[in-house]
Amino acid sequence: MEAKNLWRFLVLPIGVLLFLLLTWFHLPNKGALDCNLYSGWCTSKNRFYSSSQANQIKKPSFSSYNNQHHESEIPQHPLDPLTIQEFNRVRTILSTHPLFKSSSKYTLNSIVLEEPDKKLVLKWKKGDAPLPRKASVVAVVKGVSHVLTVDLETGLVTDYEYSVSGYPTMTVEDMVGVLEVPLKSIEFNRSITKRGVKLADLECLPISSGWYGTQVEENRRLIKVQCYSKEGTVNFYMRPIEGVTALVDMDRKEVVTISDNGENIPVANGINTDYRYSIQKLNGELRLLNPISLEQPKGPSFTVEGHLVKWANWEFHVRPDPRAGTIISEVKVRDPDTSELRNVMYKGFTSELFVPYMDPTEGWYFKTYMDAGEYGFGLQAMPLDPLNDCPRNAYYMDAVFASSDGTPYLQPNMICIFERYAGDIAWRHAECPITDLKVTEVRPKVTLVVRMAAAVANYDYIVDWEFQTDGLIRSKVGLSGILMVKGTTYENMDQVPNQEYLYGTLLSENIIGVIHDHFITYYLDMDVDGSDNSFVKVKLKKQETSPGESPRKSYLKAVRKVAKTEKDAQIKLKLYDPSEFHVVNPLKKTRVGNPVGYKLVPGATAATLLDPEDPPQKRAAFTKNQIWVTPYNKSEQWAGGLFVYQSQGDDTLQVWSNRDRSIENKDIVLWYTVGFHHIPCQEDYPIMPTVSSSFDLKPVNFFERNPILRVPPNFQDDLPVCKAHDSA
Amino acid sequence: MEAKNLWRFLVLPIGVLLFLLLTWFHLPNKGALDCNLYSGWCTSKNRFYSSSQANQIKKPSFSSYNNQHHESEIPQHPLDPLTIQEFNRVRTILSTHPLFKSSSKYTLNSIVLEEPDKKLVLKWKKGDAPLPRKASVVAVVKGVSHVLTVDLETGLVTDYEYSVSGYPTMTVEDMVGVLEVPLKSIEFNRSITKRGVKLADLECLPISSGWYGTQVEENRRLIKVQCYSKEGTVNFYMRPIEGVTALVDMDRKEVVTISDNGENIPVANGINTDYRYSIQKLNGELRLLNPISLEQPKGPSFTVEGHLVKWANWEFHVRPDPRAGTIISEVKVRDPDTSELRNVMYKGFTSELFVPYMDPTEGWYFKTYMDAGEYGFGLQAMPLDPLNDCPRNAYYMDAVFASSDGTPYLQPNMICIFERYAGDIAWRHAECPITDLKVTEVRPKVTLVVRMAAAVANYDYIVDWEFQTDGLIRSKVGLSGILMVKGTTYENMDQVPNQEYLYGTLLSENIIGVIHDHFITYYLDMDVDGSDNSFVKVKLKKQETSPGESPRKSYLKAVRKVAKTEKDAQIKLKLYDPSEFHVVNPLKKTRVGNPVGYKLVPGATAATLLDPEDPPQKRAAFTKNQIWVTPYNKSEQWAGGLFVYQSQGDDTLQVWSNRDRSIENKDIVLWYTVGFHHIPCQEDYPIMPTVSSSFDLKPVNFFERNPILRVPPNFQDDLPVCKAHDSA
After folding, report:
1. What number is the ipTM of this complex?
2. Is A446 near chain B, with CB under 8 Å?
3. pLDDT band at residue A100, thresholds of 50, 70 and 90?
């Protein structure tokens, strides 16, 4: 997450709780909540106010969403997420469990499918008896975190204790509950009002406080709350009330301290920061383009059965996850020579994020977000906007998540799946235009994209998995949304003394866009033609020729090195010490004897430069290398640790990897981190054009030959006949 | 170039010359040349056989191409390429010039527009009197290279001498003429036939020989010729006759030496290497997808007037160039706040390529191609294939180039221009779904692409310039086509002795894909809001906090450093020493006082690791850094030097830059090199799936704010109504 998402929750206390409970605030009249459009919210609301209705779920009935009958859904695949009925079964089982029965004070921080053993899943085939269904529950009971496995058949509950630092992902109530806390403080309210901001215009964010080893942090969950003025704009992020921070005890709902050190910093005016079309078109619409659309008159070429996607030569399983966002599983590609479906990857997802801001001052030093483990990357993935987030003919997949009392609720349109043709070329060659070599052969490139967009407070992360028919998988992350900005007294750079450093860019009067990094760490459980794989570095090294050997003095020589243990696979990328990174199946060779493999191909990226002993960097030690390889271990999935909130860095990928276990000819997991340095610029204001980066998983001697040699080109008669809508 | 393109020319000697002159070869009956489809070739043919018809040009009359009346074209813009009438005028002027009049032996290696002075072009506006038209001619007369300026109005010819090493770009006749030479040698023919290859099945390539400082290279133009068998496949590249190389004197048309050292290496069988659809569909078509198409029922949003393209907020000039391929000039973007067209880049093009193969042995060490200067990157850009190379609604721009006697000829469909919508997102934000913050705003991303595909013998380079409405320019190069492979006795890796190194990957029986690099060096004459610019490195450096300053130990600090001289701007990229690279206008600031600029954003790339003293690396010294900045100098355009063929590295970007001239607050040129390491894999056989990389030129405090804040989202009613072709 970035600034702390929690939009979903901010408004609740400000809008609803305050409205209902503290009616001495003057609030603008809010329209009725449109449950047709925002069922996710409606069900969240149910969760808070109608716990007696907890067994019900509001069914979306609006035409723009797939009107799936989620209530009657039954799992069709061992990796299908929990169904509504299963969520309710979990609640029933837990309600009679001693742990919860005896306690009135508990939260269910997470309820998701407990995946069956990998071996069982790999063996399972359609038509087989369903594998036993289990749920994995993270619960906090009387301040103690539990990880429970709930057997849905037997009702058996197993309770695991984890001796790691940190707390589970915040619940909605955690995040919402803290926002009202500072308002109980006269000191805090005075800080706000003396800046000329009406309390009714307040919009506050719950900001994870990190962990710095201080006494105040011991044995309690803390959070920072900072606020903004939304007067005159929905883009309240551009109107920070700089210097006012409340440190709040999340469980006691008490203010620990309030700091107020930016009295002289005005709240920026927010003029023309509201990016909504309805507002912007008042400034004159900028209509630059005729309509353009991806059209498929015969429909898309993929099918989705439950969560199983089949497209072209690909087959894989997609499910929404409250923490990871999208989980892609059992990725298989069909070999055109044998027609066999071959395993590529057992599981891939965004395991953790790390977003440190580069400002060590009082109101900013703690902004070092770990969005997946602190806020839930999937929880923040709002419904996608058809025709804009995804093109026509996209399929939208809903999520069913559990609220903190276990009630299931619907997150509609959370993931979209669509085919993409961007005018690109899959392969081509033009030959000599004469006689028997009169050849121009070109094949257009069409791909399949699985997308979600997690709007973690200000920032929006667009997470794509893109599949190409040539066997390549591209994992791409796009950053858009809104900057986290800092108030300043300056209105122009010429006012800034020569020696003063702003920690960012003056974007507009009184607004600094603070420099920050983004790291997105992917878990990639590669299973190239089977689970036992090896990781091979193919280094390119300069080789000098011997005297008299050649008129050349040097050439590049490829040197293969199999990584024996984890430390062999802790890799920092270097332009002048290049390698290819292969995951091969050492037991399988191509016809001519090359090891069958997939390679990781990094794209543009950035590395963390923070001091390894800096507390945020210690907690996010998984960003220390771009590549890691670990032996498969079911419990090692979250790069920052199972409990990331206020974690101390004792359960990270780095800690696991430093055990230096053997990784040769084993079931191995590849980890890759995509990084961005972001020095904001004025073009990012008041909303940022998308910046993207990606990496590829690419077949390397996996196929015997180009697997799309036999695909046809486009012919005129394949293409649709279209009319403009208004002339149709 | 890769292996040496010259498809266009190979076939001529083999097919036509041999057929006509050496009728003792049995040749398959070839169909008549289809001038409707291959007018470029037809006119080339005219050039060779009908020099009396030199003032005519065959006009394409086929419906798939824009039937433009090139004969009557007149220039509309100072940077418009020479017209047919102008080419003919050049020929007329030169025919009476003493240099040519007195010599029967000359070649015109290049005739292109001599650009008017930059200042004049910048001042010129539509409606102004045309600027005087001049041609720049590179001619070789009696073995001496001349660079001439021909004033088309006055007929005045100015002759410049350049005291640099090397020879001009080869002419078509150079390349074609050498291919028959080895066949005069009984020794050569015996080498071929003893390998069981019929001379009628021969396909030979003219391979630039580089420069290695040996005596044999002195004062003569040399080329290597290697041959393949095309028996049973158009993909002759996969059937190398390994170990047979003829060294040929290009001017005397004499064999210098023949080496034959691969007698025991069989010619690979070439089975299933023919990638043509007509052949591949015999194996069973792999139809994976329903049709998908980019549809624009109201037509594209761009216009092309002559060579001037206007699209959305962009305006720029595009022209084909025989050496560079596509030249983009006078790139301007409209500021949405002021409606003013603002300068971004005066000129951008691919200045040179460097493609060293990593094999120092006899038949391979010299393969270190510099495609633009040796073969002509634009000359090799074949007609694009509509619906496959470019989507529907693309505009196709023809090129008119001159053959070596000055005759103009048409290269139809050389460049395409199209709008692209790939399902991507220009910007988005989703907010809290309640009350006044019920916001999800998303804008789809549509871009404009200018594309050419240069098929330089085996390799195909797809060169895109992509323009985004947010002000970003993406320059992308895609590599496809066919590998340059090496014959081997091995059929399986298990036959290869442990200590033997293959210089590549065994791709199929008897075929090794040799490791190589690709470097594409771009010339980017940035003019950010005017010609006087500065280059600024914005370094991100780790800053430790002082004791007690902060709970944080470190953060990243941005440190701006203006490059004073060229050496300050010789940059090797480092992941752990990151910078942003800004070209700013030091005289212009934004409202809040930031310098107006554009930044260069590298994508994934590779660096050369060759020894700087290795002769190929010396000649390609422009690849030594990823970034260079030079002061604008009209004569410094070709990174490898004006005369690249057999050049010795005395006229490269490195040589110019090492003069260390001042570059602060000057008209400066930015150079960027995109690199690829390519370790071939079996998927690249027998034709390679496209691999791409790119870099961006991105506004950085150029606009006051996000310039596409006011663009509308897609609405259902904007999109077309389509039917499948067969149901329409």
Report:
1. 0.92
2. yes
3. very high
